[in-house]
Amino acid sequence: MNPEAAPAPRKIIHVDMDAFYASVEQRDDPSLRGRPVVVAWRGARSVVCAASYEARKFGVRSAMPALRAERLCPDAVFVPPDFVRYKAASRQVRQIMLAHTDLVEPLSLDEAYLDVTEPKSGLPSATAVAEAVRARIREETSLTASAGVAPNKFLAKIASDWRKPDGLFVIRPHQVEAFLTPLPVGRIPGVGKVMQGKLEALGIATVGDLRQRPLEELQQRFGSFGASLYRRARGIDERPVEPDQPVQSVSSEDTFAEDLPLEALEPAIRDLAAKTWQAAGKTERVGRTVVLKLKTAQFRILTRSHTPDAAPDSAEALAAIAVALRERVAMPASTRYRLVGVGLSGFRDPEETASQADLFATR
């Protein structure tokens, strides 16, 4: 009896729009083309939503304080974000993807995974699908997208960044190990500067170095994230593409270089609220509940939340609620905090939010 054939490897595409918000602004206003464009509100507490590639040459990046962006690039053109137009362009792009597969998992307005193991468009390969998607995006929206093609989501996301902007990179199954081995461990999603420093202190600088460490050691040092590192070092990612996963929550957090008292946390809370608001702007859903997260110097985690009658309508409104939540932290004044986070949860579709508002409106 012949053994049952192993399932064919998945064919995953990660599509990432190039400098999406800034590119929409340059498309719609010809006077901005070729100029350094920064999508951000001006102000001491504003953060950069997006930067054109002309601005990125000066070191301007998303989530950077707008004041710092202005210092790095004094000639930058600051444009306030217009999420109505960005969401309209995103819907166009989504329809193009859905012409090839029903398995589209949006990550935000400007990126998504596609499972094209069996494309409904009948194209002969995942690479052909990626080329067709990118060509149609350019033709129908006058915007560019980069794409990565690989056997799983983790690799596809790395690949899409490989030839940005307006590029396509393919990692075939037999190329996975050779591709991953020389990569810095910082290229693994979830490995930020702090984790990268911890790994490098152990002599782990590349994915190849990481692959030499046994699962037991990584789990002992880093818990469940250690198991994830073990799998990623081998190019393993079994997560399926899950279409239409509604956003439930977004958050931002920061660990301080030194522990701080509660009254000193307001600047960090406002900065994190701005980042969380920017992330929330990438979904069409509306968040209601504001969450403040704190971690004490003794690693005790505290959370406080508040659901106002109306959803926060600006970064400033979100920040004001998060700052006020400190009053509900019943800890001794001597307590010091090593981490603070600001989140937004209780997301609902705009129609549902509107219908609830109508329900409770005074007649």
TrEMBL record:
Active site: E111
Gene3D superfamilies referenced in this protein's UniProt entry, alphabetically: 3.30.70.270, 3.40.1170.60, 5' to 3' exonuclease, C-terminal subdomain (1.10.150.20), DNA polymerase, Y-family, little finger domain (3.30.1490.100)
PROSITE patterns: UMUC (PS50173)
Catalytic activity: DNA(n) + a 2'-deoxyribonucleoside 5'-triphosphate = DNA(n+1) + diphosphate
Subunit structure: Monomer.
Descriptive protein name: DNA polymerase IV
GO cellular component: cytosol
Cofactor, free-text remark: Binds 2 magnesium ions per subunit.
CDD domains in the record: PolY_Pol_IV_kappa (cd03586)
Family: Belongs to the DNA polymerase type-Y family.
Source species: Pseudoxanthomonas suwonensis
UmuC domain ranges (all copies): 12-192
UniProt main location, coarse: cytoplasm
Record localization: Cytoplasm
GO MF, one annotated term: magnesium ion binding
One Pfam family in the UniProt entry: IMS
InterPro entries assigned: DNA/RNA_pol_sf (IPR043502), DNA_pol_Y-fam_lit_finger_sf (IPR036775), DNA_pol_Y-fam_little_finger (IPR017961), DNA_polymerase-Y (IPR050116), DNApol_IV (IPR022880), IMS_HHH_1 (IPR053848), Rev_trsase/Diguanyl_cyclase (IPR043128), UmuC (IPR001126)
Residues the entry annotates as binding Mg(2+): D16, D110
GO terms classed as biological process: DNA repair; DNA-templated DNA replication; error-prone translesion synthesis; SOS response
